[in-house]
Structure formats: structure tokens, C-alpha cells
Design brief:
The complex is a heterodimer of chains A (432) and B (272). Chain A is an alpha/beta fold and 432 residues long. Chain A has helices at residues 2-16, 45-61, 77-87, 98-106, 119-124, 127-131, 159-164, 178-188, 203-211, 232-247, 264-268, 281-288, 324-334, 337-347, 354-357, 369-374, 390-406, 412-431; strands at residues 34-40, 65-71, 93-97, 134-137, 140-143, 146-150, 153-158, 194-196, 219-222, 225-228, 272-278, 295-298, 308-310, 312-317, 350-351, 379-381. Chain A is globular, with a radius of gyration of 22 Å. In chain B, helix 8 (161-169) runs antiparallel to helix 9. The chains are: A alpha/beta (432), B mainly alpha (272). Chains A and B meet through helix 1, strand 2, helix 3, helix 11 and helix 12 of A and helix 2, helix 6 and helix 11 of B.
């Protein structure tokens, strides 16, 4: 729906624009302080505080480059941005995520930062993370954002139940395999209690990211043409989740329609022993769990590897910004190692900065920070980020088909057939 | 029996309508732990005001409420000021042109906002009204006006022509007839139009999102959404507390003018 609205906005914009070119004038008068608008999407209490504090610090230290903090919302940021881009009045520094950058870069809305990024910052962030912000823009491939926070998929588990079932608590160096996880789910399923709850209201990104455990990429590109691929590697995770629901009966089917946070009350109440979750969900557990509730963070599962698809939160510079150099200067300072520690803690996510990842507060075992931070090494570029038309494929084809499959209405072969046939039809339009 | 069923149905409908408000009220006073229990309770076990203090600490609720109030009152007054004479003309002067105008008013309601938002943005930008409250008022009036006009037109039709003719016979001029005879009888319609315009503007989100850029210009709906994050996650406690406060002005406004909504003011006006 959101993506549809955004596409509609972009189409509407394209048809009416051209009239407004040259509306904005002016330049950087030397000596006059520059004001940068920074659209931030921080929303959690600590993250909001960290963002505001950093901006205040910057403004105090840099009277000639002042930053105006503007808080946006994840829910509608892309609609807001399309209008701003087309109206020629976008924020200078934009907080968003990789999946939005691909489209915006292609439309020429964002500045290519390749030559602006200082070496220190470039070296502090691993290449795999830079990959999540590297896209084809109008002037060729470039870096359209600085990646700074990432999310991995872990499992939150009830510690007392694991101990009672005499289950090995895995470590990042010795994680559970999927086979082990399925066995343990059986052990933890007792009476009315299920071993696991799979909230799959929005199943696509979750399944695609996890499928990389078995090398499942779901897309293949040949001769510049991208098509959908559902082979044995792609079927692994799908089949295993399905088995837990209907064969092993270790997963509660009533959680299928739930969003990510919805199973938490059942988790606290002991209805499910484990909940697959993005690492940020730890914050809610800390805040909401009843006193005495003991829980552990289980590292990413291992198939052939522990690899997962990653997207990053990013800071970009608008192509229309009159002060790209100053904007990059601010970004570079804002995302240095120490600041990334504060931002990561505020959002309960993983920093991309190698310096930040070594900070003792992010490697402590308290609240599973050590597991969360170590899971960064499992993150690789999510293949779907580079697929033109993925948004439409996701909303029109993949979401309903996966929901039908997990509701046990179609078989895995029917799922594969629908994903490839209907998916290819969608992607074909974007391949032209 | 029939009456009992009717009342039971009405009660059910009332509960259906009030439920979200009561849930909001209950959530606003709950701790995060109580919000995440498997068996939620209506009355919080450990009521807290922390959600309110958190909401005020995180966002400029007072400022944005004040701006929303300024915008909504301006929209309500302007809409009625424009719609009332227009509605009178449409209802009383019957011509082909008027019928076309009324049809057009209805048709204008079916355009999706997404189709016009960017042209609208560009127009506002040329008028230097982007990022201004007057710009938002202008847009809200434009969008509220057709329905208010349609609604008021129905009320004007409900005022018997004979009253105006009687006033004319008694020597009242057209203006005097309108001001002293017709306008008072339209009070319920005017109140309804005011209410509709006020609430539409008070709750409106998308235009405000696109038009207002600076945080110190944000209206209340823009501020409320800042308590939500990605993947349907939200700071539920502060959000509920702030939303509860946001409903208060609408309720107060409604309470003040609802007496005026009573119908039947014209009953018996042309008898004897």
C-alpha cells in the first residue's frame, strides 16, 4: 500500500514537473552560516535523546554549519520525501533505509557520495555494509548513503524453559543448526505450550533474509535480466517453518497472522518458549517482561552458513542540497565510532562501525548485546535490494503466495510455481 | 419487545463506538508491563501518569495542539463563511448551471488525494505558502468546502420558502430576511458544518505532512505519529496518552455547540 502510494506519487510528480525547475535559487554566501536540514527517523526514547544531543553538540562546535533537526516517521517518510524531492525542497541530510535508497538513487533524488566520503569513515565500515547502500544511479553505480545501523534475525528464548529441557545454550561461535533448532522446538513443546511462535503477517523479507542460511537467493540475473528462482536452496527455510507448523506441530499456527511484536505477551506468559525476532525487539522485552522473567538471545541459526540478508539504516544527502560537502562533513562526524555506539544502543541495533562494535557496552552479555553485535558478521547484502521491481513483486506476488503457503492452502511446489511464474511477469516489466 | 431489541441494538452500537476511546483511556494509564499481558484488564492494576510525562518530554504537544487549534478554528470559520451564502444560492436559485455546480461538487469528492498532492504542492510553493499554517488552512478549506456546501444546501432546502415570502410581505428586504429569518433557522446546519470542518481539519494528516516541514510548525497528527516506528512498532503508552489528550479539544468543542445541533427548530414555524 505504502509502496503503491509512493509509486503513484512519483508518477504524478513526473507528469506535472518540469514546470518547477529553477524555482529555488541562492547559494552559499561566504561567511554566512549554512543551515542543513536533517530528517531523522529516530523514535525510541533513548535514540531520540541521542540524536538530539549529538545535533546540539555539533551546532555548538560548528557555528558556521548549523543543523536543524527534523523528526520524521518510518510510517510515511517515503511519501513525504517524494513530494519534497519533486517540489525541489528536500532535507539536506536524510535518514532512511537501503530498500528506499535503491528507488531514490535511480530517480536521481540522492547525491552520489562516493567521492565525498572521508577515508576514515570509509575504512571504519565493512564493505558488506557499504554494499547495502551502493546502487545504480543516474550517473552509474555509486554510494547513495552511509550505512550505520543494521538488524539481524535472532531468537529470543525463555531461559528457564531451556534449562528445564536441558537444552544447550548456543554461542555465536557455536550456534544452533536448523536441525538442532527443530529438535529443540520439539523438546520445548509441552502440553499447551508451543516451542516457537512464527509471526508471519509480513513474511517476505524475513523468509528471504533467512533463506541465505542455505544459499537461497530467490533471484538470478542473466544477460541483464532478473528472474525469480525457487530451487532446493530456496525451499529449505520455507519447508522447515511449514514443518514446524503442520508436521512437528511445534509452532503455534495462531501466530501466523501476527506482526513481529504481537507474540510477546504470549512469550512472557509462557505460551511459547521461543520467538524469532529482530534484535531491536530486545528493548521491548526489557521494558515489558514481568519481573523474574529470564530470557536469552539465541544467535542466528546455521544452515550451510549463518548468513542472513541485511538492509541498513542510512544517512543520505539530497541531490538538490546546496551544501553536499557540509552535509557529508556532518554525517561523517555524526556517524563516527563513539556516536554509532550511542545510536546503536538507543535503537537496540548493530552499528556498522568496526570501532563501535568493539565498545564494551556493545559486547557485554547483558541483554544479549554480545550476541547481537557478533551477529553482524553473518550479515551480507540482501539480494533483493538490487532487484528492480522487488517492491511490486513483494506486495502483489510474494506476500499473498507465502501467506497461502504458511496457511497450508498450497503446496511448496505450487508456491514455487506461483512465485516464479507470477513473479517473472512482474519483473519482466522492470527488465525492459 | 420490539423496543427492547431496538435499545439493545443501539446499546451495542454505542459500545462499538465508545470501545476505542475507552481502550485508549485504559492504555494511557498502563505501565509497559501491563500493556504486554496476555489477558489485558480494563482498569490498570498500577495506574501511572508516566506515559503523559514521557509524551510531553518527547514532543512539543502543547505547541502542536495550539497550532492544530488555530488551523482547525480558521478552517471551520472560513468554510462556513464561504459555504453558507453559496449553499443558499444553490438551493434557492434553480437553474441548469446550479445543478451542474452541485454535481461538480459531488464529483470533486471522488478524486484521490494522491493525484493532486504534487500539483497542489507546486501551486503552494509558487504562492510561498509551503511550510506555513495559512497554506495548510487554504488546503483544508478547499477540501472541506464541497461537503460542507452540500450539507448546508440540504439545510437551506429544509427552510420553507413561505417564511421568506411572509417576511417579504411584512416588508423585510432580502438581506434582512436572510439575516433575521433564514440564518437563525439554519443554526443547526451551521453548527454541523462547523463541527465537520473543525474535526476534519483537526484530524487531517497527509496534507499537513507534505506541506509543513519545520518541527515548530507541526500540527498534532504530525506530532502523534512520531511515537511510532518501523514494522508497526510504537511507544504505545506515550502514544495513547498523547492521543487521549488530542481527543479532548474535539470533545469540548462538540460539547459546547452540540445543543445547537438539535433539529426541529422549524417545526410549526409556518402554522397558524
Amino acid at each position: 500500500m505504502r509502496r503503491g502510494l509512493r509509486s503513484a506519487l512519483a508518477v504524478a510528480a513526473a507528469t506535472v514537473l518540469g514546470l518547477t525547475a529553477g524555482c529555488s535559487g541562492g547559494g552559499n554566501d561566504s561567511g554566512k552560516p549554512v543551515t542543513l536540514k536533517f530528517l531523522s527517523l529516530a523514535w525510541q526514547k533513548d535514540s531520540l535523546a541521542a540524536n538530539k544531543r549529538l545535533v546540539t553538540e555539533w551546532n555548538k562546535a560548528n557555528p558556521k554549519i548549523q543543523v536543524q533537526y527534523v523528526q520524521g516517521s518510518w510510517d510515511n517518510v517515503n511519501d513525504q520525501l517524494v513530494t519534497s524531492f519533486e517540489g525541489g525542497d528536500p532535507p539536506d541530510v536524510i535518514h532512511d533505509d537501503s530498500s528506499a535508497l535503491a528507488g531514490f538513487a535511480g530517480q536521481g533524488y540522492l547525491a552520489d557520495l562516493t567521492k565525498l566520503i572521508p577515508t576514515g569513515l570509509k575504512n571504519d565500515i565493512p564493505d558488506a555494509a557499504w554494499g547495502t547502500a551502493t546502487f545504480d544511479g543516474q550517473g552509474g553505480q555509486g554510494i547513495y548513503g552511509v550505512p550505520f545501523l543494521q538488524e539481524s534475525q535472532v531468537i529470543l528464548a525463555n531461559k528457564k524453559m531451556l534449562d528445564a529441557a536441558k537444552v544447550r545454550i548456543p554461542t555465536s561461535g557455536d550456534p544452533w543448526t536448523w536441525d538442532e533448532f527443530q529438535q529443540i522446538s520439539k523438546k520445548l513443546t509441552v502440553g499447551k505450550r508451543y516451542g516457537i511462535a512464527w509471526p508471519l503477517k509480513s513474511p517476505v523479507n524475513k523468509v528471504l533474509n533467512l533463506s541465505l542460511n542455505f544459499g537461497g537467493t530467490f533471484f538470478q540475473t542473466s544477460g541483464g535480466k532478473t528472474t525469480v528462482k525457487v530451487g532446493p536452496q530456496e525451499k529449505e527455510v520455507l519447508q522447515r517453518i511449514h514443518d514446524q507448523l503442520y508436521k512437528d506441530k511445534t509452532a503455534d499456527p495462531s501466530t501466523l497472522g501476527m506482526g513481529t511484536t504481537d507474540p510477546l505477551p504470549g512469550f512472557y506468559a509462557g505460551r511459547y518458549a521461543m520467538v524469532p525476532a529482530g534484535i531491536y525487539l530486545r528493548q521491548q522485552v526489557v521494558e515489558q517482561a514481568p519481573s523474574g522473567f529470564q530470557w536469552v538471545t539465541i544467535p542466528p541459526l546455521k544452515g550451510q552458513t549463518t548468513q542472513q540478508g541485511a538492509i541498513s539504516q542510512t544517512l543520505s544527502v539530497a541531490a538538490d542540497s546546496k551544501h553536499p560537502k557540509e552535509a557529508m562533513q556532518f554525517i561523517s562526524w555524526f556517524l563516527n565510532g563513539q556516536h554509532q555506539v550511542d545510536l546503536a544502543k538507543g535503537d537496540w541495533l548493530i552499528p556498522t562501525s568496526k570501532t563501535a562494535a568493539q565498545d564494551p557496552t556493545l559486547t557485554t552479555d547483558k541483554y544479549g548485546w554480545n550476541v547481537a553485535t557478533a551477529s553482524a558478521k553473518s550479515l551480507i547484502l540482501a539480494p533483493y535490494l538490487k532487484v528492480n521491481g522487488f517492491d511490486e513483486f513483494k506486495s502483489k506476488v510474494a506476500t499473498p503466495v507465502l501467506q497461502s503457503y504458511f496457511a497450508n492452502k498450497i503446496t511448496i511446489d505450487q508456491l514455487a510455481q506461483k512465485l516464479t511464474q507470477d513473479g517473472d511477469k512482474v519483473l519482466e516489466r522492470y527488465n525492459k | 419487545m420490539k423496543t427492547t431489541l431496538k435499545y439493545a441494538g443501539l446499546l451495542g452500537y454505542l459500545v462499538f463506538l465508545v470501545f476505542p476511546l475507552l481502550w485508549l483511556l485504559s492504555t494511557a494509564f498502563k505501565t509497559p508491563r501491563e500493556m504486554a499481558t496476555l489477558h489485558p484488564r480494563w482498569i490498570p492494576h498500577h495506574p501511572t501518569l508516566r506515559n503523559f510525562s514521557d509524551a510531553f518530554a518527547a514532543q512539543d504537544l502543547t505547541g502542536s495542539a495550539l497550532r492544530s487549534l488555530i488551523v482547525a478554528v480558521s478552517v471551520a470559520v472560513l468554510t462556513v463563511a464561504i459555504a453558507l451564502p453559496a449553499a443558499y444560492a444553490l438551493a434557492r436559485r434553480r437553474s441548469v448551471l446550479n445543478r451542474i455546480a452541485i454535481g461538480w461538487v459531488l464529483v470533486s469528492q471522488v478524486f484521490p488525494v494522491v493525484l493532486i498532492i504534487i500539483p497542489l504542492f507546486i501551486i503552494l510553493r509558487r504562492l510561498d505558502l509551503v511550510n506555513t499554517l495559512p497554506g495548510l488552512v487554504l488546503v483544508h478549506v478547499t477540501f472541506v468546502l464541497p461537503f460542507a456546501l452540500w450539507m448546508l444546501q440540504g439545510y437551506v432546502r429544509g427552510v420553507p420558502r413561505e417564511l421568506e415570502e411572509a417576511a417579504a410581505v411584512d416588508g423585510a428586504g432580502r438581506i434582512r430576511t436572510l439575516v433575521n429569518v433564514v440564518a437563525p433557522l439554519l443554526a443547526p446546519g451551521v453548527v454541523a458544518a462547523l463541527l465537520f470542518s473543525f474535526i476534519s481539519s483537526w484530524n487531517e494528516f497527509f496534507f499537513a505532512l507534505v506541506i509543513l516541514k519545520d518541527p515548530d510548525k507541526a500540527t498534532l497528527p504530525l506530532t502523534l505519529v512520531k511515537f511510532t516506528g518501523a514494522e508497526q512498532a510504537a511507544r504505545l503508552g506515550p502514544l495513547a496518552a498523547a492521543s487521549l489528550l488530542a481527543t479532548v479539544p474535539s470533545l469540548v468543542f462538540f460539547a459546547i455547540i452540540q445543543r445547537r445541533l438539535r433539529s426541529g427548530l422549524t417545526a410549526g414555524a409556518v402554522k397558524g
